[in-house]
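Annex B, item 7. Sequence and structure tokens for protein A, then protein B.
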Amino acid sequence: MRDIRLGDDIDDFCVRCKRVTNHVVVSVVKAAPAKVRCRTCHSDHDFRNEQAPPPKVDLRKQALFNEVLKKVDPAEAAVAVQALAAEDLAAEALAANPIEAEAEVEVEDLAVEAAAGVEEAPPKPAPKTKAKAKTKARK
């Protein structure tokens, strides 16, 4: 395989797009790409070898939170632990594939609410779009 040069196309995980997209090599250090530019959103970032960044979940904080919940009410703690587990799975799925993960998250949320005995909240109204102003044709 040939060496990487400036301007070469390469696949990498885009920080802004949150998925693997085509990139252009912007800088090279020791025959390896150092910085790349996304061809979809045009953002520059370090080359990540197509690896998504690890999720920002502090496991120690979550463990302490679960202990406090167990002391308060064991039944409520079980529901809270299920909700936290569902959130963690949703975060991992979103990092892997944002489009499919959104549908799965909605289904999991409904299941957690049903298990907790919480009634489903009414759906939020769609945001209103502004009407575009019509321009007159010049004569």
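Protein B:
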Amino acid sequence: MNAGRLKGSTKRKPAKAESAPLAELRDIGKTFESGITALRGVSFSVRRGEFLSILGASGCGKTSLLRIAAGLLASDTGSISWKEGTRPRETGFVFQEPALMPWATVGANVRLPLRLLGSDDRTAALRAREILTQVGLDKFADTYPHELSGGMKMRASLARALIVKPKLLLMDEPFAALDEISRFKLNDELLAFWRELNCTVVFVTHSVFEAAYLSTRTLVMSPRPGRVVEEIRFLPATERFDPQYRTSAAFAARARKLSDALERAQ
């Protein structure tokens, strides 16, 4: 990825608390056929341009909540109101696993969303080449998923989500299975894309450090049945693009604040 080009781009303005909501989730509840209640009475807004993290322990319903927001799972109670009346057409989703089609090349996997949206082959190919270059996979367009490392598969999954230039990007613990070095790099690249595309990100994680590093706002969830018990806002830290930020006192303070909130949620 061309980090230098992204760092030199226009600095992104912080998401403002008073900005208009992109979506309002009200009283969301979900009970599965097994009788397990994953979510109960979940209400919050998603605001334009923010990086919203949903933080909670494993099993608290974070993934179910994100899938409901994506329209992949129906809630039993509650509703979602979208500003434009419906979810943005340009929505990207990155799953916990890369979920790439094993029979298709990396390029074909990345082009898929544009093909589903009706783009012509030439437009899709040009955009795929552009986004694969940005994520550092331009030399792997003709390879197959089984030939890639775990980090490269996740880059391909991220490229597939970003190819539509999403207004909304939904991410379900996408980097949880990666080694720390790969995770740090992809966190940095994700922030650069968020700043460049000026999109809204909803990011599910169980990592205090990841939420502290990425978020402008974090919702802390209780154990199952999951509900939002605390909201913590951060101004975007421009120092995050400094390699030393992860060892700074400012970052440690953010992580400690989230850790304390997560402890209170138990």
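Comment on protein B: Residues 220 and 230 are 5 Å apart (CA to CA).
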